[in-house]
Amino acid sequence: MIRRLYDWMMRLAADRRATWWLACVSFVESSFFPIPPDVMLIPMILANPRRAFHIAGVCTLASVVGGFLGYAIGYWVLEAVGRPILAMYGQTENFEAFQAMFRDYGWWIIVIKGMTPIPYKLITIACGAAHFPLLSFAAASVISRGVRFFLVAALLWKFGEPIRAFVEKRLTLVTTLFVALLVGGFIAAKYLI
Fold first, then answer.
1. 30 vs 26: CA distance, rounded Å
2. Could you write out the DSSP letters of every residue in 92-118?
């Protein structure tokens, strides 16, 4: 099953419309969608390493633009939409403390946590709820998301084929590590935010 899913993702990554699908996933992940864009980003770069930085750019741009939707959710519809999203990630109780910390260190929180597996949507919604300055939010988002996605792109571009061979030979291990990182991100979000 895992092998078929991986093969399917690699075929999708080579599809001529894959960039648009990546943009859509990156956009919605920044505000409410639970699956990170890395699920598409990595196989797309492995399938076409010459376009690694273009793919990372699309992912970054769509993620930052999607972050504005998350910001709007926090700013205008926190109670109706934002709180249910926060509850889905177990962040309802920690949200008030996070907002207080956010007011003091907001820019750095966006930059640092936007590069981690912590769900970016939590940051975007919190920014809107805290009425964080939109221009500062945009700048910090470009930096954090750009560093995250371009670092992945650079590593895959530089070491792509050996990494691809490693992934294909040890798919179960790689999948387990990815899931562990993803779950670790949610746990970190619960206790660090």
1. 7
2. TTTHHHHHHHHHHHHHHHHHHHTTSSS
User: HSE (CB half, 13 Å, CA atoms) of 14?
Assistant: 8
E-assigned strand segments in 53-181: none
Contacts of 117 (CB under 8 A, 6+ apart): 36, 181, 182, 184, 185, 188
Q: How far apart are CA 67 and CA 28, in angstroms?
A: 8
First and final CA of the chain: distance in angstroms?
A: 35
Residues 78-92: pLDDT tens digits?
Answer: 888 888 888 887 777
**Which tens digits make up the pLDDT trace of 117-161?**
678 888 899 899 888 999 999 999 999 899 889 988 888 898 876
According to the model, what pLDDT value does residue 73 have? 94
Give the domain ranges of the chain. Answer: 2-27+37-192
